[in-house]
Write a structure and sequence with these properties.
67% of the residues lie in helices and 2% in strands. It has helices at residues 2-23, 30-33, 47-52, 55-69, 73-82, 89-105, 108-124, 140-161, 168-185, 194-204, 212-222, 228-244, 247-253, 259-281, 285-295; strands at residues 126-128, 134-136. A two-stranded antiparallel sheet has the order 1-2. α1 (2-23) crosses α14 (259-281), α4 packs antiparallel against α8 (140-161) and α6 packs across α7 (108-124). Keywords: Oxidoreductase. GO terms for molecular function: oxidoreductase activity.
Length: 315
């Protein structure tokens, strides 16, 4: 009995630590629980639901996305000049994780509200990069870059560290599904298949460079963590993230590690840490709430859900 209690306590402790770091402790599950029968932007049969709930894949893919996104001089200029990620990195993580979670698993209303908030913020993120070029976070081409860098890394994280692997057709479905989010933010010509993503990267590579701001961001990310234990975990995840980057991106950012080290040290370490995180965080409360919402019968027009009678006479 004491072993069971101890195991439950350990699992609860791990889950609490991970959720407090990623989501700020409050999962705000109401966004995922209601209304009954609402599939949200995607739904449980989509590849997005499968990919975005995998903890090790999303952790490493998210870090890889930050590294890859930093290679666009205009994107990193906006982050460097408008973001407080160095002073409040956890807050930035909470906002990003919350946006991905609610657009993936939240109700349609909650997802649309999150998209609207981000669009409003983007209107104010504008300025001039160190090379003299103006930038705007609402620029459709810049939005496309941020989206493709992010989702390609999420997919790579799932393929390497997730449960199972997606087929070629499922990978195409993932890009086609998740393009909806980018388009609703204002992105244009969003790649919707693996072949289109490859062509996109080939076309944009000439615009990418490791600016001073990019290298500073990479240095910050590699040493991030308020406690020694968290810094050690971040190092493990960061090394796994580097192994997901295209070789040309890792070389440009000066983070490339020898292939034998990646295969024999970095990736096994992520798998081990990922098993611990899965133990503490699964089953996911967010995904569970979303599944229950989708499976619940829709309320008939004019009739309140069971257990919540319609008030009479305005009472």
């Amino acid at each position: 009995m004491s072993q069971v209690i101890g195991g439950r306590s350990l699992r609860r402790w791990i889950g609490t630590r991970v959720n407090s770091t990623v989501h700020g402790g409050d999962l705000r599950l109401q966004r995922y629980r209601e209304p009954p029968g609402d599939p949200g932007l995607f739904g449980p049969d989509t590849v997005v639901w499968r990919v975005h709930c995998d903890i090790p894949g999303m952790f490493t893919g998210g870090l890889a996305a930050l590294l890859l996104q930093s290679l666009h001089p205009l994107a990193i200029a906006g982050v460097d000049q408008h973001s407080d990620f160095r002073q409040n990195p956890i807050d930035r993580l909470n906002r990003t994780a919350g946006f991905v979670s609610v657009t993936s698993y939240g109700s349609t209303e909650a997802a649309e509200a999150a998209l609207s908030r981000v669009r409003r913020v983007h209107e104010y993120v504008r300025g001039t990069a160190p090379d003299g070029r103006p930038y705007s976070a609402a620029d459709p081409e810049l939005l496309t870059w941020v989206h493709v860098a992010e989702t390609s890394c999420f997919l790579a994280g799932y393929q390497v560290f997730g449960r199972g692997r997606l087929t070629a057709a499922e990978q195409d479905r993932y890009f086609a599904e998740v393009a909806v989010v980018a388009e609703r933010l204002g992105a244009t010509d969003v790649p919707a298949s693996t072949a289109e993503v490859r062509r996109y990267f080939a076309a944009v590579r000439g615009e990418l460079a490791a600016t001073e701001a990019a290298l500073a961001a990479v240095e910050f990310l590699r040493g991030f963590g308020p406690t020694p234990g968290q810094r050690a975990a971040v190092r493990v995840l960061m090394n796994g993230a580097v192994s997901l980057l295209p070789p040309w991106a890792a070389r440009t950012l000066r983070v490339r590690r020898p292939r034998p080290v990646q295969e024999l040290v970095d990736r096994p370490a992520v798998h081990a840490l990922g098993a611990v995180m899965r133990y503490g965080c699964e089953p996911s409360a967010i995904v569970g709430a979303a599944r229950a919402r989708v499976a619940a019968p829709r309320a008939e027009p004019g009739r309140a859900p069971a257990g919540n009678p319609v008030p009479m006479n305005g009472s």
